[in-house]
Specification:
By secondary structure, this protein is α+β, with helices and mostly antiparallel strands. It has three domains: about 170 residues, 2-Layer Sandwich (Uridine Diphospho-n-acetylenolpyruvylglucosamine Reductase, domain 2); about 120 residues, Uridine Diphospho-n-acetylenolpyruvylglucosamine Reductase, domain 3; about 230 residues, Vanillyl-alcohol Oxidase, Chain A, domain 3 (3-Layer(aba) Sandwich). Helix content is about 30%, strand content about 20%. The strands form five sheets. The protein has a seven-stranded antiparallel beta sheet with strand order 15-12-14-13-17-18-16. Helix 11 packs antiparallel against helix 12 and helix 15 runs antiparallel to helix 16. The protein is globular and about 75 Å long. The N terminus is likely disordered. The structure holds flavin-adenine dinucleotide and 2-acetamido-2-deoxy-beta-D-glucopyranose (6 copies). Belongs to the oxygen-dependent FAD-linked oxidoreductase family. InterPro entries: BBE (IPR012951), FAD-bd_PCMH (IPR016166), FAD-bd_PCMH-like_sf (IPR036318), FAD-bd_PCMH_sub2 (IPR016169), FAD-linked_Oxidoreductases_BP (IPR050432), Oxid_FAD_bind_N (IPR006094). GO terms for molecular function: FAD binding; oxidoreductase activity.
């Protein structure tokens, strides 16, 4: 795999708020409208936490941030070196309670790279987690949070870009251990007949794909093996290498098993609690209820091919030829995406263009070589240096989706870590058709100063090759229907820089990069799972025409606003006060 260029530098921040160390127990100014945090008079006493712990059979965990071993008085040189070496690795963060992957929300409160004399503070970490093993645990957690007026969050893997799976002083429902997997060979309802798979809310993409492959099926999952399936991914829409054939994750959901914020257990399907089904299928994670399991349509597995290639400014002889080649390549890629259901993931810097995975389900190596021929010809006609060997072209295939990903993609996607500043934008098919030159110029200017890099997913959820319509109408972002390129912009970062450098990068993204990209992509929107937490007009940009209906469903199932997340539906009613308490506006 040529480049793991998305190793763009990501950072994370951890937090510990010492339950004990929350030094100043300042009076809460808006007691009744704010959630209690440690130190507040109404924060539950330890006997109450013990009672909760007994209710959940000892599965209550007091948060100990992973980097505590890097700070006095618990500093341990060997253990800290180990934490530093794996800092922010998905496999580490996603398998522990309370850890999250986004540096901005880790906020440097307890990271492996700050001075050992800096106290390890909980900051935005949840104070306690319940290692959820069944719906009863969720009901207990919801009841405790309501009774004590404390913040409640749901954490599955912690991949969320917006810190939605964490919160200062929160009780966290940690769902990772809900690992049920079950094949339903003959799902039979008015809206679908055929094979399905039921998974617990903690199953990740790799686990779901491999389980399905074992029975000869494919499950629509994200490209990164550790991203959860039934959590923020499918609840936020969920694009996949398989979306050209089968649509989004949300398009394939048959039923959700859920505990609502009022503690009610429901099953939501297209015909039962259908409003809730609609909202959970794409209307955003952590908003309408706590999902226990999800049952989804699966598809026959089989031959599937993958190509990778890359070139750089040196190969092509400078910046202008580089951008000319990028333009030709992105134009030539579109027919593969529109007509053949291909999905490509691309990493770019100011000087490197790398398709680390162009996947075509149904094709073998020979088929994919044929499909790529026009693109390769156009590329070498644009720049004679761009021969197949100069671009390190590799074409491979496998008899299962899971096998192809494990052998060729996983090493790249699993190495991705997150930097402090992340943004995103869609480029629609009509944007590209009308204004490709201006779009390329905007991308070029975004990366020219070497402070930002870009990851692109090329896809068409309405491709001519698509094999199945959505199971039922759903709340997946309507803008997905028009997307050609989904963009993630990330800041360069390395952990040895001063944390003070993060805020100017965020300002530069918001004030320079974002408007530059928006100007050339009118009306395109952005993916609410892959964007910036300060996106202006986020209701319209992330949710579009679904927002008003989603707000109504939120109000019906979560009348007290127990579930909150930045940019989640209904979150405009809340804001943090100066000490990090979540308060009703
Ligand atoms: C490296 C990387 C690769 C990615 N690749 C893709 C991709 O290929 N395609 C794509 O579409 N997206 C992708 N994403 C974005 C991803 O979809 C989001 O980050 C998503 O929110 C992750 O969901 P999670 O449940 O794994 O994470 P978490 O951070 O644990 O949760 C995310 C949100 O969902 C809520 N949630 C989690 N579990 C539940 C539950 N059981 N019930 C209710 N709410 C719940 C949380 O409260 C939070 O609001 C990627 C992200 C990263 C970091
Ligand atoms: C909950 O109980 C278990 C089992 O007794 C114990 O190991 C754990 O430390 C307790 N959690 C808390 C937060 O006290
Ligand atoms: C990060 O911490 C600082 C205080 O150290 C605080 O002012 C700021 O709001 C925090 N940011 C986030 C995103 O929590
Ligand atoms: C599916 O359900 C319908 C209606 O209940 C029934 O008539 C039909 O035989 C079932 N099909 C299968 C394959 O079980
Ligand atoms: C650019 O590509 C060439 C192959 O054409 C490769 O040898 C070189 O290492 C690449 N340079 C960078 C900076 O990636
Ligand atoms: C297919 O996938 C399996 C499992 O990852 C792997 O062992 C095998 O090498 C792959 N085959 C090819 C041709 O890549
Ligand atoms: C094309 O991009 C320019 C900015 O370079 C913008 O002003 C214009 O509105 C865009 N036109 C269309 C049709 O998107």
């Amino acid at each position: 795999m040529a480049l793991s260029l998305v190793n763009i530098g990501l950072v994370v921040v951890g937090l510990i708020v010492g339950r004990v160390a929350a030094a100043v127990a300042s009076p809460a100014p808006h007691q009744s409208t704010c959630r209690n945090i440690p130190g507040d008079a109404r924060w539950p006493k330890s006997a109450e936490w013990d009672r909760l712990n007994a209710t959940v059979d000892g599965r209550l965990i007091a948060t100990v941030p992973i980097a505590q071993v890097c700070h006095d008085p618990t500093f341990s040189p060997e253990e800290c070196a180990q934490v530093e070496g794996q800092w922010n690795a998905a496999i580490v963060m996603t398998t522990r309670p309370a850890e999250i992957m986004t540096p901005w929300f880790q906020n440097q409160s307890c990271v492996a790279f700050s001075d050992r004399s800096t106290p390890c503070d909980l900051g935005n970490y949840a104070s306690y987690s319940i290692r959820v093993s069944n719906a009863d645990d969720v009901v207990a957690g919801i009841g405790f949070a309501r009774k004590n007026n404390i913040r409640l969050v749901v954490k599955n893997t912690g991949h969320d870009f917006f810190g939605k799976s964490t919160g200062k002083g929160a009780l966290s429902l940690w769902t990772r251990n809900l690992q049920h997997k079950e094949l339903v060979q003959h799902y039979n309802t008015s809206y679908y007949r055929g094979p399905a798979i039921k998974i617990g809310a903690g199953v990740n993409g790799k686990e779901a794909a491999e389980f399905a492959a074992q029975y000869g099926y494919r499950f629509v999952v994200g490209s990164c093996p550790t991203v959860g399936v039934a959590g923020g991914y499918t609840q936020g829409g969920g694009h996949s290498f398989l979306s050209g054939l089968y649509g989004l994750g949300a398009d394939n959901v048959l039923e959700w098993e859920v505990v609502t914020p009022t503690g009610e257990r429901l099953v939501a399907t297209p015909t039962k609690n259908s409003n809730l089904y609609w909202a959970l299928s794409g209307g955003g994670g952590g908003t309408y209820g706590v999902v226990i399991s999800m049952t989804s349509r699966v598809f026959s597995d089989g031959q599937i091919a993958l190509a990778s290639l890359s070139f750089n400014t040196t190969t092509v002889g400078g910046d202008d030829p580089f951008w000319a080649s990028v333009g030709v390549l992105l134009s030539q890629l579109q027919p593969l995406v529109d007509d053949h259901g291909a999905v490509a993931q691309v990493s770019m810097t100011h000087s490197i263009f790398s398709i680390f995975g162009l996947m075509v389900p149904g094709a073998d190596t020979h088929d994919l070589a044929n499909l790529l021929a026009p693109l390769l010809t156009a590329l070498s006609q644009t720049n004679s240096a761009l021969t197949s060997s100069a671009i390190s072209l590799v074409i491979t295939h496998n008899s299962t989706y899971a096998g192809l990903v494990a052998a060729n993609v996983e090493a790249v996607t699993e190495a991705i870590t997150l930097p402090p500043v992340i943004g995103g934008r869609f480029i629609s098919r009509s944007n590209w058709a009308n204004n490709a030159t201006a779009i390329l110029a905007a991308l070029r200017s975004t990366m020219a100063n070497e402070r930002f890099v870009v990851a692109l997913t090329a896809l068409n959820t309405q491709s001519a090759a698509r094999l199945a319509k959505p199971i039922a109408p759903n709340a997946a972002p309507p803008a997905f229907a028009s997307v050609y390129l989904s963009l993630i912009v990330t800041s360069m970062w390395d952990w040895h820089r001063s944390w003070a450098d993060a805020a100017p990068l965020q300002a530069e993204y918001l004030e320079v990069v974002r408007p530059t990209l928006e100007a050339v992509t009118p009306g395109a929107g952005a993916y609410g799972n892959e964007a910036n937490w300060q996106q202006p007009r986020w209701q319209d940009v992330f949710y579009g025409s679904t927002y008003e209906r989603l707000k109504g469903i939120k109000a019906r199932y979560d009348p007290e606003g127990l579930l909150y997340g930045l940019t989640a539906v209904g979150s405009e009613k809340w804001a943090a006060d100066g000490q990090g308490r979540l308060c009703r506006k």
